Amino acid sequence: MRKDKPYVMYTLFAINTIVFLMQYLLPGLSIENQLGMFSPSVIWQHQYWRFITPMFIHFGLMHFALNGVVLYYMGQQCEAIFGHWRFAIIYLLSGIMGNFASFAFNQPTTLSGGASTAIFGLFGAFLVVGLHYRDNGAIQALTRQFALFILMNLAFGLFDSTIDIWGHLGGIIGGALSGWALAVPYSQDRFSTRARVTAVLFFIFAIVLFVFFGLRKFSMYQ
After folding, report:
1. Residues 6 or more apart from 190 whose CB is under 8 A from it?
2. Which of 34, 36, 51, 79 would be a feasible disulfide site paired with 6, CB 3.0-4.6 Å?
3. What does the pLDDT look like over 67-121, one tens digit per residue?
4. For residue 56, which of 85, 19, 93, 23 has the smallest C-alpha distance?
5. Dihedral sign, CA of 39, 41, 46, 51?
6. What is the average pLDDT score of the chain?
7. Is 89 exposed, middle or buried (0-12, 13-18, 19+ CB in 10 A)?
8. Under a CB-based contact definition with an 8 Å cutoff, are residues 178 and 200 in contact?
9. What CA–CA distance (Å, rounded) separates 210 from 204?
10. What pLDDT is recorded for position 25?
């Protein structure tokens, strides 16, 4: 693992904090309505930034606090393993994939957002690390803990309509595929070139599939 400071995690944490403070102090701007994933705005007003910006907004203090704590601790682990720029790419691509999944499968009237799409991507990327480091007891222990956390959260999501379970699933997929494609620096011999290329192709295929389902959903409502 890398021993330098997790600068990217600090930056992402700061961005989320600044945006949340703006939401709290300037409610008249309706930042969540302008930046959250809202499918009709994507379809009819071509607001494509909504595939990116929802990962930086939150709905209330508890939502922000929970995601902030998980990002702080999980982000340090993943940035230490993947390095700065790989960690940044995994985080952003996971959030984007999660937002595409929300676009595809949530009800058209749903407004969603939160860093959890990207954070679940970090868990997905770490599970991939666990698959490639079966000989490392410490990594295996963390992998089991994270896998249990994912299962528990997804189970709660089935009974809590306020949880964007599709966004979480999309984030896990995005994180696993991007983590597999980028590999772990200094240990890339554990990741075959064929598997890395395949991960890239599956990532692109998943995005296309989510767009198809999202457009199909709106065609059914017309």
Report:
1. 132, 133, 183, 184
2. 79
3. 999 999 999 989 999 999 999 999 999 999 999 999 999 998 899 999 999 999 9
4. 19
5. negative
6. 90
7. middle
8. no
9. 10
10. 93
Structure confidence at residue 208 (pLDDT): 97
Tokens of 142: 């963390």
Q: Model confidence at 221, in pLDDT bands (50, 70, 90)?
A: low
- 127 C-beta neighbours (distance < 10 Å), count: 20
Written in H, E and C, the secondary structure of the chain is: CCCCCCHHHHHHHHHHHHHHHHHHHCHHHCHHHHHCEEHHHHHHHCCHHHHCHHHHCCCCHHHHHHHHHHHHHHHHHHHHHHCHHHHHHHHHHHHHHHHHHHHHHCCCCCEECCCHHHHHHHHHHHHHHHHHCCCCHHHHHHHHHHHHHHHHHHHHHCCCCCCCHHHHHHHHHHHHHHHHHHCCCCCHHHCCHHHHHHHHHHHHHHHHHHHHHHHHHHHHHC
**Catalytic site positions:** 116, 168
* Rounded-to-integer distance, Cα 170 and Cα 91, Å: 12
- Please list, in sequence order, all residues whose beta carbon lies within 8 angstroms of the beta carbon of residue 168, skipping any fewer than 6 positions away: 98, 116, 117, 120, 153, 154, 157
